[in-house]
Amino acid sequence: MITGNIVARVRELSGILEPDLVRFVRDLVRTPSPSGNERAVAELVAAEMKSSGFDEVYVDKLGSVLGKIGSGPVKILYDAHMDTVEAMDPGSWSHPPLAAEVENGIIYGLGAVDDKGSLGAMVKAGAGLKSLGVSEQVTLYVAGAVGEENCEGLATGRLLQETGIRPDYVLVAESSELQVKRGHKGRATIIVTVPGKAVHASTPELGDNPLYKAGRFIETLSTMGPSLMYHDFLGRGTIAATRVECVAASINTVPELCRVYIDRRLTAGEDRERILSELGSIVPPGSTVEIMRFEGSAYTGARIVADEYFPSWFLPEDHELVRAGSRAAAALGLSPGVGRWAFSTDAAYTMGVAGIPTIGMGPGNPKHCHSKEDQVGVDELVRANQFYTLLPLAVAGLLE
């Protein structure tokens, strides 16, 4: 049983763990892990879980790592991803992307804010939770997922399906400036293929130029925004053409077809059928509209094929998990306010597909994600670690 001031004990534990937390996050940042090549970081995470006292550590077929602490009736999954995007133009970064330099209390480097700071804080929260002696009250699973940058939620879903674990609640750890999040829009990548008739460019009148048809379609697309569905919490869906490709024999040939790539952000109530139907009603005759498919391999060699379609989700503000997150935040002096993310996360699966109540919270500012100023503050890491340690107690009714 827990006795004494829980919050004071959590703060004390996080202070003891701080040097180890900073060391671990720096080790994570120094270890390259672009999507599909996370093996070295997965090994690092698994070893850290074992040395931190996790009861069980498991690596699944895709290479995601899952650690378990406790055997209590309340089951919570913490989820963060191990992969990063590639570092573009490393020589132009203010701090080398893999150096994990610390300057003025800030850790700089690729993945520091997305998502290795959160991952490190979660793993070390497991060590803190074990020290509190709550093994009989809660079961905490901590997952380091692969491939989130390509297909958010896919690896987390495969992990839960493979292990048969069905947590009662999920926390997805992504940068949120230490604010609790209770939802985000979904997203889909759509390809519209516009047919044409290829001819030599010296006789364009004999062909059917798909570029012109695609151009008129894109112009129509640009006016659709205000007509898309709106939700009081998630806001309005969005749509944007992001790339155009043509298939042609040469630069002097009218193309035989044109592909338009579309980024579609989905608010509540917008699903696959709706977004494909609305585009199908405005595309040029003969065009096809389809969800883009991702095809790749995990570092384990397992093949990954999936649609780039990720549902929206949100929890009501009065949901018990949201209330528990707010209580934990307030107890630590963090903002108890609750918001939404502007981007998509693994929660697209946990809540959007599986319907498991999910909230989010993480250290760092999302503006630094995928940027040459990728960074996370040590103070924010410590406070996130405290929140991750305290949340299971709030969910289990041990923090009132």
Write the layout of secondary structure elements.
Layout: H1 6-30, H2 39-51, E1 56-59, E2 65-69, E3 74-81, E4 102-103, E5 106-108, H3 112-132, E6 138-145, H4 154-163, E7 169-172, E8 180-184, E9 186-195, H5 210-221, E10 230-231, E11 235-236, E12 238-247, E13 257-266, H6 272-280, E14 288-291, E15 293-297, E16 303-307, E17 309-310, E18 313-314, H7 320-331, E19 338-341, H8 347-350, E20 358-360, E21 375-377, H9 378-395
Helix pairs in contact: 1-3, 1-9, 3-9, 7-9
Strand order, sheet with most strands: 1-2-6-3-7-20
* Quantity of strands, as a count: 21
Structural class: alpha+beta
Beta-strand share of residues? 25-35%
Following the backbone from N to C, one meets helices and strands in this order, namely HHEEEEEHEHEEEHEEEEHEEEEEHEHEEH
Helix content: 25-40%
- Overall pLDDT confidence: 96
Can you count the helices?
9
Gap between N and C termini, in Å?
15 Å
The 3D shape can be described as: elongated
How many strands, which pairing sense, and closed or not: the largest β-sheet? Answer: 6 strands, mixed
Unreliable residue stretches? none
Q: Please state the CA-atom Rg, rounded to the nearest Å.
A: 23 Å
Question: Can you offer a commentary on this structure?
Answer:
- It is a single chain.
- The chain has 400 residues and is an alpha+beta fold.
- The protein has 9 helices and 21 strands.
- Strands 1-2-6-3-7-20 form a 6-stranded mixed beta sheet, with helices on both faces.
- A hairpin with a 5-residue loop joins strand 1 (56-59) and strand 2 (65-69).
- The longest helix is centred in the N-terminal third of the chain and has 25 residues, at 6-30.
- The radius of gyration is 23 Å and the shape is elongated.
